[in-house]
Specification:
Chain lengths: ~110, ~475
């Protein structure tokens, strides 16, 4: 941790102190996403979209954090946080299972 | 190692698995493994968060009963829905699950804002933008879901387009105002932004026609990715950042690739040039169509050397993929060379037809992409169009006034004979006439695709 804190400078974006590292992550991830997708055969577009759909289910981690730090008497936060965890899980589980089902069919066919 | 290090390691593993997973999803033989890798990475990141996450005050994750209960409910329900859905209804499912993710992002924004009342402009801006994008993604996905299920019809007008564009700027303006002046409106602004964004999502998708739903779902998919990334920015959470941005950028590129396949710009899709504003294309009044009987079709196909099947959404609706494969096999027993011509945007999602035919065990090499099959079509004896319309419309090449002018098509009109299976003379999703149906070489075979194919199989066996 100390290594990161010593080497990481901060920049103020919209009033938020943002480590430069975060900006690098954003830029590199954005270009990486473009590169990863550019060479995909049309046949895999649907499974790929479905897989990407499951991956943005990572938003569930935000809901766990919100829920995990909600005060015991804050019913709004508890209720909505609980709902958010359920919805996020639906996104993750449903997304991966549907993708797997689609890809299962490709596999079965290739064996022949 | 302390908890913080363990958390970061779990996030690192998660991020790597997303990248490797997405990469593997782009090649047919590794795709399934890639999906499992990404799922495993997600599990690691979730467990890591529950076990090791601490907020700035050093507090660990609490309310574990609620969290684990929520995850259990979501897992059971999500698994049940995903396992039960028919392959033909898959685009709807992707849209539905995408909406769930959007709603999750929106709820995080609401709770965060109403609980902690942050006063810093930047933090407020990030929360509000995440809330807005998540809400638009949620309500938009639900409308897309309804449209694909056939429960919601297209509705739109010029006035609404103008209103939509004004409305989105109004919401953005409100967000900026509420971020710069935290005390100006107070808590109700959260709900106003939430409500307006939900409404905008509905208005945004409502006028967009069925043919453009793949593009819309892909776009909303990348929206949700961006909403997740805003969450990552807010919590300084690396795995949410990488996952969200990867999907945001990959989804955007996928959306653009889809638009290119239709030779249209994303803007053109969004403002809905198809709906209302475009001309009706060349008039086909006075031209007549010719029908063909099932028996004659069977004879024509049985004595052909090469038959190419062009599937479309009609095939999916009629659930006719298995019968279609059966038909192909029966013809091949007669010595006919049968192939499938797959247009990239046929159906309701790119690759929709591939998945559908794969489900029916049609061999991989039989599925030909548009560029590969077009040169072979002049030597093809019979092209059978099953439930496809716009993707074989020659107006895309010949009529500059047509709204689909410039879209690459499967050149069915260059084949020696064309048989079009259709339920009725209804127009395709672009809402324009199709000259192909009135071509001298074309014969219409009306009826439900599945029932007609079943009759055809019986007839071919009798030839």
């Amino acid at each position: 941790m100390t290594l990161l804190q010593e080497t990481s400078d901060f920049i103020t974006i919209f009033g938020i102190d943002t480590p430069w590292d975060v900006l690098f992550v954003i830029i590199i991830a954005a270009f990486l996403g473009v590169e990863l997708i550019s060479n995909v055969p049309a046949i895999l577009h649907t499974p790929l979209m479905s897989g990407a759909n499951a991956i943005h289910g990572v938003v569930i981690i935000g809901s766990i954090i919100v829920m995990g730090h909600a005060a015991q008497d804050n019913y709004l936060a508890l209720g909505l946080g609980f709902l958010a965890v359920i919805l996020g899980t639906l996104n993750v589980v449903g997304g991966f299972v549907v993708t797997n089902r689609m890809l299962e069919m490709f596999k079965k066919k290739e064996k022949k | 190692m302390n908890n913080m290090d363990l958390l970061k390691i779990s996030y690192l593993l998660g991020s790597i698995s997303f990248i490797v997973g997405l990469k593997m999803l782009s090649s047919p033989d590794k795709a399934r493994k890639g999906n499992l890798y990404a799922a495993a990475g997600m599990l690691i990141a979730i467990i890591g968060t529950i076990l090791f996450h601490q907020n700035d005050a050093g507090e660990r994750i609490g309310n574990l009963a609620f969290i684990i209960g929520g995850i259990l409910i979501g897992t059971i329900v999500g698994y049940a829905i995903a396992m039960r859905v028919k392959m033909t209804a898959m685009p709807q499912m992707v849209s539905l699950f995408n909406g769930m993710g959007g709603a999750c992002a929106a709820l995080i924004g609401i709770v965060e804002m109403s609980t902690h009342h942050p006063t810093e402009t930047g933090e407020r801006l990030i929360i509000f933008l995440g809330l807005m994008i998540g809400s638009v993604s949620f309500s938009g996905s639900m409308i897309a879901y309804g449209k694909l299920e056939g429960k919601i019809r297209d509705y739109g007008s010029k006035v609404q387009q103008v209103f939509n564009n004004t409305f989105v700027f109004a919401i953005l303006g409100l967000i900026i105002y509420a971020s710069v002046r935290p005390d100006a409106i107070g808590d109700p602004v959260i709900w106003i932004i939430f409500g307006c964004s939900l409404l905008y999502g509905v208005l945004f998708v409502m006028p967009i026609g069925g043919a453009d739903m793949p593009v819309v779902i892909s776009l909303l998919n990348s929206f949700t990715g961006v909403a997740a990334a805003f969450g990552g920015f807010l919590y300084d959470n690396q795995v949410m950042l990488t996952g969200g941005i990867l999907v945001g950028s990959a989804g955007t590129i996928l959306t653009i690739l889809m638009c290119q396949a239709m030779n249209r710009s994303l803007w053109n899709v969004i403002v809905g040039a198809f709906s209302g504003s475009s001309g009706p294309g060349k008039s086909t009044e006075g031209l007549s169509i010719r029908e063909i009987s099932v028996t004659d079709t069977a004879i024509l196909c049985s004595y052909a050397q090469k038959v190419v099947i062009v599937p479309g959404y009609g095939l999916a609706v009629a659930q006719a993929q298995h019968v279609c494969h059966e038909f192909e096999k029966v013809l091949e027993e007669k010595g006919v060379d049968v192939e499938f011509a797959i247009h990239p945007v046929a159906g309701r999602m790119p690759g929709h037809m591939n998945v559908l035919l794969a489900e029916a065990d049609v061999p991989y090499p039989k599925l030909k992409e548009m560029e590969d099959i077009n040169p072979a079509l002049p030597n093809t004896d019979v092209v059978i169009v099953i439930g496809a319309n716009d993707v074989v419309n020659p107006a895309a090449e010949t009529d500059p006034s047509s709204p689909i002018y410039g879209m690459p098509i499967i050149k069915a009109n260059t084949a020696k004979n064309v048989i079009v299976m259709k339920r009725s003379m209804a127009k395709g999703y672009a809402g324009i006439e199709n000259e192909l149906f009135f071509d001298d070489k074309t014969r219409m075979l009306f009826g439900d695709a599945k029932a007609t194919l079943e009759k055809l199989i019986a007839e071919v066996k009798n030839v």
